[in-house]
Amino acid sequence: MHISVIIPAYNEEDCIASSLRRVSAILKKHFVYEIILVDDGSTDDTYGEAFSVKKHTHTRIFSYEKNKGKGYAVRYGLLKAKYKTKVILDADLSISPRELLEVDFKQKFDILKGERRQIVKQPLHRIFAGKVFRQIVSEMFDLDFDSQSPFTILRLPKNFYKGLKIDGFAFDVEILYKAMKENSRIITKEVYYFNDRDTRVTLLKTIAMFFELLRIRIKN
Fold first, then answer.
1. How many domains does the chain have?
2. How would you label 115-144 residue by residue, b for 16+ Cβ within 10 Å and e otherwise?
3. Kindly report the CA angle at 10 between 114 and 117, in degrees rounded to 5?
4. Predicted confidence (pLDDT) per residue in 20-36, tens digit
5. What are phi and psi of 11, to 5 degrees?
């Protein structure tokens, strides 16, 4: 089984080296794999920390100076990946790459989306915001998925990725909505979510996500 693991990263110097080692240690016994690390304009030493373990983790590193958004970084990585089966994970591995060992890759699917089962208790405002966002996505796009789950497996043609436009956090919604309209096979899998209380999704970014949803709806 050949897979490309795409990890977007912005200012993740504290965890990126250990995350790359962890992904590699889990995958090397079960897959032919590559890790695509996209340094999204970090202002810390994310690149240097990733480079220090590059040789030992099958990692290819791509970097650019200006921060362009998580969606842009993911799209960049998808277009650089060698293998058809592509996995998107967060840099902090809030969902363990070990979940990949529980996936039946013999199933026919174009997208497998993780449905989070919360392990670490989250603040009430984050729980509320997540439920509201999911309801809005459901109403606007008829998508009843955990779109913001940081565990996605894609088996789509390269031209699909070239057509993506959203650079921010709502990129997952664009992928799911575009795939649904093209009658792609979308399945789900329950995954354990260990994210801590720290988050990069601020109020301003949440507002920006709603504008991205409008853009997706209008453009598609």
1. 1
2. ebeeeeebeeeeeebbeebbeebeeebebe
3. 20
4. 999 999 999 999 999 99
5. 55, 60
